[in-house]
Design goal:
By secondary structure, the protein is an alpha+beta fold. It has three domains: 117 residues, 2,3-Dihydroxybiphenyl 1,2-Dioxygenase, domain 1, CATH 3.10.180; 142 residues, Vaccinia Virus protein VP39 (Rossmann fold, 3-Layer(aba) Sandwich); 48 residues, 3-Layer(aba) Sandwich (Ribosomal Protein L9, domain 1). The protein has five helices and 19 strands. A hairpin with a 2-residue loop joins strand 2 and strand 3.
C-alpha cells in the first residue's frame, strides 16, 4: 500500500508507564482515537494541528530534558473546547488569562499527562517586546517594579537570573505546594532573599491545611496540580528561617475551602520583607500607638502603648516596611 503525504507534520515520541492509561488521556486531549494501537505501541495522527504522536510503553523519569510540550490553537473558542473536553473527562487543568511570557501575550491552560509530562495549550494574542518573566514593561512615566515569579508547574531553579539586591518583589505562586524537601525550599528562599532589595517584598500563594495531610494529595479541579499540602504555619516558619521579616497573612481562608482526608484545606496569601540587619547603636525613636497594651517585635523588642523607645535604624525601617506600620509613630530626636 502506498501512502501519499502532502502535509509536513511534527512527530513526537513519548515514553509512558501505562500505555492504556496514556491512550485514554491523549484520546481526550486530541479529540480523536489512535490510528494504531498495539500492546507495545500506539500512534495518533492529528490533522489540525499536523501532528504525529507516538507512545512507547517504557517508564522513564518524568520529563527528562523536556521542559514541556504544547499545542497552539487559532482562537479562544478552540481553546475552551479542548479545556472543556478535558474537564468533563475528569482531567484537571490550570488556566491563565492574558498572561505575558516568552515575548508574547497568551491565554493558556496547563495539563499533565499520566506520566507528568507537562502540556501547554494556548492561543496567541500578540507579540510583546519583553519576556514576561523577569523584565516587566517600563511605564513611560515611571519605572515599574522589578518582579520575578515562580510557579508550581516549574522546577525550583538553583539560581534566579538577577543581580543581588535588584528586585522589588518575588512572587511564589504555588511554590509551597511542590513536592520539595524543606532543606531545598530553604536554600531557594535564601536565593530569593539574595536578589531582593532591602525592604523588597516576598509574596506566597498556595493551599495549606490545618494539620498534616496524609499521603499524596489527589485533589479536584485546578488543585490537582498540588503535590504537597503544608500545614498553615510551615511557609511562615520557612520564610523566617530564610531571614524574612514583617511576615503577615493577607489571607488564610477564614471560610474553609474544602475537607479532604480529614484535613481542612484553606487558601493562603502570605507576605514578608527582606529585612535590614541590625547595626550600630539605637538612634531612632519609635512609639507604639495601640490598640494593644503592648506588643513584641520579631527581634524580641517589647513596645508598650504610648511609650517611646529607641531602636536601631534597621529595626525602625523594618517596622516601616511591615503590615503594622500604622500602629507606630516614628519620632524625631
Amino acid at each position: 500500500m502506498t501512502i501519499t503525504e502532502t502535509t509536513t507534520r511534527f512527530h513526537i515520541g513519548l515514553h509512558v508507564s501505562d500505555l492504556d492509561r496514556a491512550v485514554r488521556f491523549y484520546r481526550v486531549l486530541l479529540g480523536i482515537g489512535p490510528a494504531k494501537y498495539h500492546d507495545d505501541y500506539a500512534k495518533f495522527e492529528v490533522d489540525e494541528p499536523p501532528l504525529v504522536l507516538a507512545l512507547y510503553p517504557s517508564p522513564q523519569v518524568p520529563g527528562g530534558t523536556l521542559n514541556h510540550a504544547g499545542l497552539r490553537f487559532p482562537n479562544s473558542e478552540a481553546l475552551v473546547d479542548v479545556q472543556r473536553r478535558l474537564e468533563e473527562a475528569g482531567i484537571a487543568t490550570q488556566r491563565q488569562e492574558g498572561v505575558e511570557c516568552c515575548y508574547a501575550r497568551q491565554t493558556k491552560f496547563w495539563v499533565t499527562d499520566p506520566d507528568k509530562t507537562l502540556w501547554e495549550i494556548y492561543t496567541l494574542h500578540e507579540d510583546i517586546d519583553h519576556s514576561g518573566f523577569e523584565d516587566p514593561p517600563v511605564s513611560p512615566d515611571a519605572a515599574a517594579d522589578l518582579v520575578w515569579q515562580h510557579r508550581l508547574t516549574v522546577p525550583l531553579p538553583e539560581h534566579i537570573p538577577h543581580e543581588p539586591d535588584s528586585l522589588d518583589e518575588v512572587i511564589l505562586e504555588g511554590t509551597f505546594n511542590a513536592a520539595v524537601a524543606p532543606e531545598a525550599l530553604t536554600t531557594f528562599l535564601k536565593e530569593c532573599s539574595r536578589v531582593l532589595k532591602t525592604g523588597g517584598k516576598i509574596s506566597a500563594h498556595g493551599l495549606v491545611g490545618d494539620k498534616p495531610f496524609p499521603g499524596t494529595p489527589k485533589l479536584p479541579g485546578l488543585a490537582s496540580l498540588v503535590q504537597h499540602v503544608p500545614v498553615e504555619t510551615d511557609a511562615l516558619q520557612l520564610l523566617e528561617t530564610a531571614g524574612f521579616g514583617s511576615l503577615a497573612f493577607e489571607k488564610l481562608g477564614d471560610i474553609h475551602c474544602f475537607h479532604v482526608n480529614g484535613v481542612e484545606l484553606r487558601e493562603m496569601r502570605l507576605t514578608g520583607r527582606k529585612v535590614l540587619r541590625s547595626t550600630g547603636l539605637p538612634t531612632t525613636l519609635v512609639m507604639y500607638k495601640g490598640p494593644f497594651a503592648e506588643v513584641v517585635g520579631e527581634d524580641g523588642t517589647t513596645f508598650q502603648r504610648g511609650v517611646s523607645k529607641r531602636v536601631t535604624p534597621a529595626a525602625a525601617e523594618n517596622l516601616q516596611k511591615g503590615p503594622a506600620v500604622e500602629q507606630f509613630a516614628f519620632l524625631l530626636g
